[in-house]
Amino acid sequence: MPDLIVPRRYCGPPSSGNGGYTAGALAGLVDGSTVSVSLLAPPPLDTQMSVEVVDGTTVAGVDGAPVARAEAAAIDQAAVEPVPATEARAAERAFVGLAAHPFPTCFVCGPDRPDGLRIFPGPVDDQDGLTRLAATWTPDDSVADVLSPVTWAALDCIGGWAGGLADRTMVLARMTAQVDVLPRIGEEHVVVGLDRRTEGRKTFTAAALYDPDGRLLGRAEHLWVAVDAAAFA
Hints:
By secondary structure, the chain is mainly beta. The chain has one domain (8-232): Porin, CATH 2.40.160. The protein contains four helices and ten strands. It has helices at residues 19-27, 85-91, 147-154, 157-162; strands at 34-39, 50-54, 57-62, 65-72, 122-127, 130-137, 170-179, 189-199, 202-210, 216-226. The longest helix is centred in the N-terminal third of the chain and has 9 residues, at 19-27. The chain is globular, with a radius of gyration of 16 Å.
């Protein structure tokens, strides 16, 4: 299998890869419409990670130490409900990460990244009593060649913010995603995130991506783990 490399542009914390991008890149090497990726260590940037299949699981690692593993999976729960683009645009003005952000250079949601996706989710109406956030996203030509892992990235961070990233620093530990149709370059899409529950250090969230016509393109479920922010600075 080809090596896996996460270019520095696609960082989450300053010195490690964005979890969604890394998961999406590894998922692209797995057969199946729905893939679950567990992140076992901070993904290194600009580093060749060897990829091999071990007992039916696709594993990426460095010098024999596993970084991520991926396998075919399933998503059983319904997708996060859509939000109109006008509502999502309005919600962005209340993105708490503009005032305080644990990783301001994150490729997906970092306010200090003019070359990033600039997905800035804000609160919208709850879904079944659960906190829901939404934001718009317009993919540009700079991500056309890596649109699949970037779509996983777009489905990543909004889950963390829905799950309370503003209140405690968390990193992605596992992401399961199904992307049926890739978004179109130059068109405005809507990403919606949902907080499901928190159990100790673990937080469970979900996200969905909709096209300009309100069609569901992809969805994801996440497991986040609270960490010491200083360890990822």
